Amino acid sequence: SNHAPAGEAAADENTAKKYSPIVYAITLSDSVFFPEGGGQFADHGTLTLKSKDGEDTEHKIQLFVQDAQNVNEICVLFCRLPSDSESSPEDVTKILDNSDDVQVEQT
């Protein structure tokens, strides 16, 4: 999966309190989320990133998928970290930077 922080999200106050201001743009080779298009709104849901470190300890981070867009026929998921998450934005970046070992669950 490729990624890049998509910058600060302009959001209503409620969303701003529940999620970190950082938005991650994540592309997956296969996604159950449907992007906006044809009059349909984009799917929302959660994305769980899983990876193992050198000691084989599994790390899981759950992200909220706030939007899915079709960019040049690639589904890009715009995700945010819940503010009550035990993980930090640095943890998310660390897992995504080692994306060869990342497993993704979508709900």
Explained architecture:
The protein is globular. It has 107 residues and is mainly beta. The protein is built from 2 helices and 6 strands, in the order E-H-E-E-E-E-H-E. It has a 6-stranded antiparallel beta sheet with strand order 1-2-5-4-3-6. 14% of the residues lie in helices and 48% in strands. The longest helix has 9 residues, at 89-97. Strand 4 (58-71) and strand 5 form a beta hairpin.
List keywords for this structure.
single chain, 107 residues, mainly beta, six-stranded antiparallel β-sheet, globular
Topology diagram in text:
Elements: E1 2-8, H1 13-18, E2 19-27, E3 45-52, E4 58-71, E5 74-82, H2 89-97, E6 103-106
Antiparallel strand pairs: 1-2, 2-5, 3-4, 3-6, 4-5
Subunit organisation of the chains: single chain
Distance between the first and last residues' Cα: 17 Å
Strand order of the largest sheet: 1-2-5-4-3-6
Name the shape in a single word: globular
SSE pattern, N- to C-terminal: EHEEEEHE
Q: If you compute it from the alpha carbons, what radius of gyration comes out, rounded to the nearest whole angstrom? A: 14 Å
Give the averaged pLDDT, no decimals.
Answer: 74
Total number of beta strands: 6
- Taking pLDDT < 50 over at least 5 consecutive residues as the criterion, the unreliable ranges are 7-11
Q: What class would the helix/strand composition place it in?
A: mainly beta
Query: Biggest β-sheet, characterized?
Result: 6 strands, antiparallel
How large is the share of residues in beta strands?
over 45%
> With helices defined by DSSP (H or I, 4 residues minimum), what is the helix count?
2
